């Protein structure tokens, strides 16, 4: 800030501020931090973790509840009391939360047995897991290929069977990308459906917490537990428009194929989709139609421009979050002081330790803020509303939109260029091209394996905002059609 103070004003204000600032020291004595909970943390053994899915291994025994007997893995950008939280970065080693994130507390209350914190791209920025400071997560379907990102370890844990359910986050596809590559179900709810208290934001207006599991039923059961309003995250008030808590029960009565109508967005099935994925997707569409479902082409015109819309929103919000060292300015609290103290201390040490992607993207965001006064950000946020309207128009008369989740199968390790994630085969669009629009519009999206042989290919279903329960019923219908 520059108030253009005269020398006399500067001296006067400096003295007043100096006199006042000592009073704030009383806040340290008034603060009542949460009690530090200690858990038995185990070293992650490569024999027990063949795909590098975990950063930290531990076990909490679950009690009674809907998740009793369910092993759950949690992405390492969600707080588990007494367990280190790195966000996939060496910068945050030593951060040990004193209390659980809201979704973690809900899992524990529901009887889940937590089995570890999963590996991820650094600060959740990356679609392959190759930006993680703890090494790449390999794909259980093929050890030479990436698991996808940024919720890489969560998808690999479910695919390899070390977890029955996993929690991930999705800012531009980070639940659905690895779920598609690893051949599991990945669900990104409507924005606001799951509270983000105790979660480390990448871009708050695009961040979603979601579930990954072997099947739609377990995915929905996890959503029923973690979703719903929480006062610590005002945005979760939107969850009141969703029947959270009964989504899994709703899967017992799903639509018959002849009752279903799907729209295929032309923009998500364009030239960026590989021939192999296109062929697999066309087989899926043929299966839907032969089962009695109606399928027709629809349009989402703004998707063609969504790359820079997503970049503008994400990079500006990311840069702003790094600048304020995690200060939760928009949330009512109470807060866990351990993360704030550790994050501030780490970032004060010359900012060392972050990888190239984090540094480059933060610098891009800083330029958009400082040089251009955030104009691109505001325009991008306005385009999000346009895209939401286009989704509503495309969905009119349809139960869901359907498209390939990813334009390619899981790339080999090192195949993608580290900054753009373009490939050497000429594909010049981001891996997340088909997944980012749902984040920009805030609509629910779920990826389900197509069931064919070979490397996994996911089929993505999308619905109108707050139609999460209906979308999960549609996804379950597809599972039944696929397996018939």
UniProtKB/TrEMBL annotation:
It comes from the Archaea. InterPro entries: Amidase, Amidase_CS, Amidase_dom, AS_sf. Its EC number is 6.3.5.-. PROSITE patterns: AMIDASES. Residues 61-472 form the Amidase domain. Gene3D superfamilies: Amidase signature (AS) domain. Pfam families: Amidase. One of its GO terms (molecular function) is transferase activity. Keywords: Ligase, Transferase. This is Aspartyl/glutamyl-tRNA amidotransferase subunit A. The lineage of its organism: Archaea, Methanobacteriati, Methanobacteriota, Stenosarchaea group, Halobacteria.
């Amino acid at each position: 800030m520059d108030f253009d103070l005269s020398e006399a004003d500067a001296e006067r204000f400096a003295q007043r501020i100096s006199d006042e600032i000592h009073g704030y020291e009383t806040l340290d004595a008034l603060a009542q931090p949460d009690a530090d909970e200690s858990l038995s943390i185990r070293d992650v053994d490569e024999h027990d973790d063949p795909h590098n899915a975990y950063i930290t291994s531990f076990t909490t025994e679950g009690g009674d509840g809907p998740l009793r007997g369910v092993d759950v893995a949690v992405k390492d950008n969600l707080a588990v009391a007494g367990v280190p939280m790195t966000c996939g970065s060496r910068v945050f080693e030593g951060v040990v939360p004193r209390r659980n994130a809201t979704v973690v507390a809900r899992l524990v209350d529901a009887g889940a047995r937590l089995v570890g914190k999963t590996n991820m791209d650094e600060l959740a920025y990356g679609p392959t897991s190759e930006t993680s400071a703890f090494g790449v997560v390999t794909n259980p379907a093929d050890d030479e290929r990436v698991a996808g990102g940024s919720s890489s370890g969560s998808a690999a844990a479910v695919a390899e069977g070390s977890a029955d359910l996993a929690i991930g986050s999705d800012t531009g596809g980070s639940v659905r990308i690895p779920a598609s590559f690893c051949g599991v179900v990945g669900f990104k709810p409507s924005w606001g459906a799951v509270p983000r208290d105790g979660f480390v934001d990448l871009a708050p207006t695009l961040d979603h917490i979601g579930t990954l599991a072997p099947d739609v039923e377990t995915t929905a059961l996890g959503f029923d537990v973690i979703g719903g309003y929480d006062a610590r995250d005002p945005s979760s008030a939107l969850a009141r428009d969703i029947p959270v808590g009964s989504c899994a029960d709703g899967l017992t009565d799903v639509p018959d194929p002849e009752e279903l109508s799907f729209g295929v967005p032309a923009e998500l099935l364009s030239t960026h989709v590989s021939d192999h994925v296109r062929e697999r997707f066309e087989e899926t569409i043929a299966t839907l139609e032969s089962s009695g479902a109606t399928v027709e082409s629809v349009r989402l015109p703004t998707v063609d421009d969504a790359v820079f819309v997503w970049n503008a929103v994400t990079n500006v919000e990311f840069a702003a979050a790094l600048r304020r060292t995690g200060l939760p300015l928009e949330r009512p609290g109470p807060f866990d002081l351990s993360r704030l103290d550790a994050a501030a201390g780490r970032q004060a040490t010359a900012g060392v330790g972050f990888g190239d992607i984090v540094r480059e993207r933060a610098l891009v965001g800083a330029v958009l803020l400082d040089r251009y006064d955030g104009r691109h950000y505001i325009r991008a946020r306005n385009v999000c509303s346009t895209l939401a309207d286009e989704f509503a128009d495309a969905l009119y008369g349809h139960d869901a939109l359907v498209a390939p989740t990813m334009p390619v199968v899981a790339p080999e390790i090192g195949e993608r260029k580290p900054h753009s994630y373009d490939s050497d085969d000429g594909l010049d669009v981001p891996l997340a091209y088909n997944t980012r629009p749902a984040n920009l519009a805030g609509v629910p999206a779920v990826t389900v394996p197509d069931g064919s042989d070979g490397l996994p290919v996911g089929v993505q279903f999308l619905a109108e905002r707050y139609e999460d329960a209906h979308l999960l019923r549609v996804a379950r219908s597809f599972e039944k059609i696929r397996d018939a």
